[in-house]
Amino acid sequence: MTILRDLSVLWSLSHILILFMLLYRSRYPQKMTVILTVVFMGSLALLNVAGLVKYGMEFMGQVFLLTCTLPSLLFFWFMSQDKKGQFFFTFCLADTVSYWIIALTNIMDFYFGGQRYILMLIGRLVLFPLVEWTAYRYLRKPYRELQESVTKRWGLFAGMTAVYYLLLAVSANFPVVVTRRPQELPVFLLIMVLMPMTYATIFAAMYRQLQLFRKQQSERMLREQKNTLEMRLENQQYIRKMKHDMKSYNATLSGLLAVGKLEEAKDYLQDMEQEMDSDWGQFCQNPYINATVAYYDRKLEELYAKRQIDIRTGEEALPHMELCRILANGMENACDELSVLAGEKREMSVHMQYNRDCLLIRIKNRCREGRYVEQGKLPETDKEGEGHGYGLRSVQETVERLSGNMVCYTDNGYFVLDVMIPCRSFKPSYRDS
Predict the structure, then answer these.
(1) Splitting the chain (433 residues) into consecutive groups of 10 residues, what average pLDDT does each group show?
(2) DSSP 8-state code for residue 183
(3) Structure pTM?
(4) What phi-psi label fits residue 161: left (phi over 0), alpha (psi between -120 and 50 degrees) or beta?
(5) In degrees rounded to 5, what are phi and psi of residue 312?
(6) What span, in angstroms and rounded, lies between the C-alpha atoms of 48 and 13?
(7) Going along 263-346, which residue ranges are E strands?
(8) If you write DSSP's letter for every residue of 137-162 in order, what string do you get?
(9) Using CA atoms, how far apart are residues 385 and 407, in angstroms rounded to an integer?
(10) DSSP H or E run through 245
């Protein structure tokens, strides 16, 4: 009947693999991932079955960490897109759940199946697909979203699951298998009961983190929508004012033209254009980018801030939604920072221009004394209440969608936000300058 045992081992090893692949994120395309996994893990499974036939279940259970766990850990670490806590937690999760099923079916077969391995095989045939269906149906989508969105606490959770896996493996096999230590079986069963409770606690904490992340995303979107609506409202108000002023302009022009004073009418039109530009703020030819910069320029004017704005773009096709989001969040953060400084220290600059194959954006503003932001890291917000701390994160996500790079840092009392976007991501028609 050892054939049933060997089949159940092969079944278990293959389903450990399936469970893990449902949850982790490979850095390779799906087809390549499947091929490499089948070749490596298939060979590893066959070697473990051969060892089981030659050395027996007790010996292979004691060396399972060395013959299966560690080789598969190294292989999947190489294959995984995540290299830190996310990966180790996912690996330990799949291995611990699978080992739990293996240990449970071993005990069931020993005490109720007469060690004929029939109950062991049936239990594994049922339990592994049931766990995989549950993982695919309820866990896979939110878990992958968690891997992408949540960056903290993975190391702690991975350490907990690794210790739990070692506890389960050691208590099941050392010094001999637990079925040969009946006096320790109650303690082992309590450990078995503790496992799902532990994972339920971990996933409850992770789900709360996911909900918090979704809430932050929603608040960030609402904040951006609020800023956009405010800009539109202010622009509409200005347009209404401009339409009202145009009546008096037209009356004056009509009078000049009626008496044949063409040169005076021409000079008057030039004065009108200069006045409109000074009121509206003509920073570039792109109407969307210009409206965004003009909105925040007026906010800076209300703060009596010294500012230098240099936008060197023409009428070429640009991803204006993304660029406006970058400029709006960067300038909004600058306005917030300047608002807490003394009037004479309120100073900022905005530069946007092409450099060979890239569009470069730099937003630089004075910051509070003693503030330090390490290059390559996003600063933590120190504002009280909700709805803060998402601007730079939004900039970073937007830049990444455009295949660009973003970095922020402090330098000699200034906070600097640098953005580089490759022109191939939007293929503008411009002249090198």
Answers:
(1) 79 82 83 86 83 80 80 86 82 88 91 85 93 89 78 79 86 87 91 87 80 76 72 67 69 78 79 60 76 85 90 76 88 90 91 86 91 78 46 85 91 92 66 40
(2) G
(3) 0.55
(4) alpha
(5) -105, 70
(6) 9
(7) 306-311
(8) IIIHHHHHHHHHH--SSHHHHHHHHH
(9) 26
(10) helix 185-258
